[in-house]
Amino acid sequence: MLVAEDGTPLTAGTEEGKIKYLVWDLARNKAVKHEEAVLPALEGEFTVEGKRAKPVFQLLKEKVSQYTPEWAEKITGIPAETIRQVGVEFGKTRPAAVDCGWHDPKYKNSTMTWRAAAILNALVGSLVKDGILITGAGSTASPPPDVSEDSVTRIWGAKQGVAMASKGFTFQGFLDAIEKGEPYRISTAFLFSVNLVLTGPDSRRWREALKKLEKVIAIDIYPNDTVLYADIILPEHAFLERDDPLFGIAYAPVAGFHTRVAAVQPLYDTKHVIDIFAGITKRLGENYYNKFWVSFAKNLGAADPQAMGAKLREAYEKHGVRGIRMVQAQARNIDPAKLESEGLVVVKDAETLRKEMVQRTLTGRLLTPTGRIELFSFALNSIKARKGYQPYWDPIVAWAEPEVLGKADGRTTFYLIYGRVPTMTHTSTADEPFLSVLTPDFKRMAWINRAVAESLGIKKGDRIRLVSVETGAAVEAVAFPTDLIREDTIWVSSDFGHESEALRYKKFGVLYHMLTSIKADPVAGGIMSQEVVVRVEKV
Amino acid sequence: MARYGMVIDLNKCVGCGACVMACITENRREQALKAIEEGLQALENFKKRTYIVTHIFGTYPNVGVVYTHMICQHCENPPCVSVCPTGASYKTRDGIVLVDKEKCIGCEYCVQACPYGARFWDPYIRSIDKCTFCAHRLAKGEEPACVTTCPTGARTFGDLDDPSSTVSKLVASGAAVALKKEEGTRPKVFYIFPMRRR
User: What is the ipTM of this complex?
Assistant: First the structure.
């Protein structure tokens, strides 16, 4: 695709509702529509109707030429020679792929980091191939819709300058609403399976904020730290006790649907979350109850939410949540008996799906505006058009600095990071008896480089204090000196250290989010959970 | 008659413990429920038929992590059987080493004799306990629970006398090797050791 000097992709107008983008055809020495090109130019500079333009690959080449291994060595500490060697190995190995991220931005530049990785995958042909990355490129999923203009999250995000504020990803905005009444005061919070006082950024503030609300209503299956702040607790069925609606299969290279079928009777007086909301809206009156079903239908993507809402309501009133599932299954021609006995129905197996994705790629039917794998980001380009150029939304790729860069010396100050261990999630495994003890203690400790720990007189098992350089907040942790971590970095696991006395099998951890602060990354508004530098003190 | 064996590829292990958990739910469910009822300390002390040990090696930045697996090796020449004074420890015709808890007097000679640390006293059933290769599942034509559960396929199970089985091929290729050969126990669990990581 050709991009003009002003950053605009060149087009040949619209055909059948689709914009036709131009490429330079070396065979005919002129700009043509992509599908007509015999030999599309990857490099060079061309003039099209008086405008100077370059292929995207040329722009990428020019952009990355400044990012040499020697340049990267100064930032990462990884020897230039090693970087060069890895580059050569990656370029020569097939299949090869780099994980291009899935988490909300942990750093100010996370979007660009993952973009760089995705571009590498595209360059070595690893986006739609057997045995490598197949998610994303062939996806038919639509981007999430905008939230209401009155949404606290949207208004807060816009105020912070978040480019995608309209998507409402910025839940941290609720703090200002609770504490200062900005943009307006909220009195009640419904918390559904969310552990804000443990996993919300600057969790000290969430603890105080929840106390200020008139009502906090928590729907959960665990008495976790956040539930303890609730005025009303609505206990939900645990997963073995519940019938669920139909869900699309995620995180697997197949297309299909799955559900949960209640395996045991509920042990206690609990309800399904749908029973809870249907029950509340019914008590509020017919108008609310009807709206609940219509919006339920909307969320399921119904073409006619009114009609589908009525159908769902009728089925629910007859058969409960199982009724909802039956309506969904019927709409998709899925045999409900097979679904309920097997728990899942695969509509397209991995092989069929891959073939389809490859076909979709080859015939230009991907979700990009050109229908093809594009290195150029139209989404970031439109942000650039609205807000001016910033490396954080470069439509090609650019190095953009994280906030913490250069602020940790590896002697007294350290970058703070967290990661997963296979036996724990943030919250839902905290009270699982066996997972609790199958997680070795060293995975609950704060990892500090062995040589650094020695220089600080810190031994395995010593209690240390991590103090946020930015906010002064401090938490205690147990030290694990190890060679697995860089000299300038401290690692903790994402168990995050539960405190709730009501959890019987919890073990120690690190209250990580006491040390984070309220931030929003410039693109999506993520909490930037690793933009944290700490001091380490021996207790 | 089969001669059952297992190959554990340590290159594939991610240390998730799914095999340990699958074994507990398949074979020691009642004991586990009692331990859960007793609380965290009982769970900490709960013995496992198979377990994983993490090894961290090297000096930053050239470091690595290896997970090793312990499980009864179902030896051809099992010292635990020969030292048992009551005949509680025995070998089946399929070569699986088992314990008859009715005959076990808890003398723990076998625990001492096993060079692999694969046996333990189970206070809940008041007998020595150990891996059975899920003999009850094999009888139904199923593989051991740990094998079917492993998300990375690190454990492979099959008949060592069948030259076409994956386990036979791995052992014949020399990739999978036995532990503590010098003990003369002739184990039927084999390990593929991690490739050197930089």
Answer: 0.91
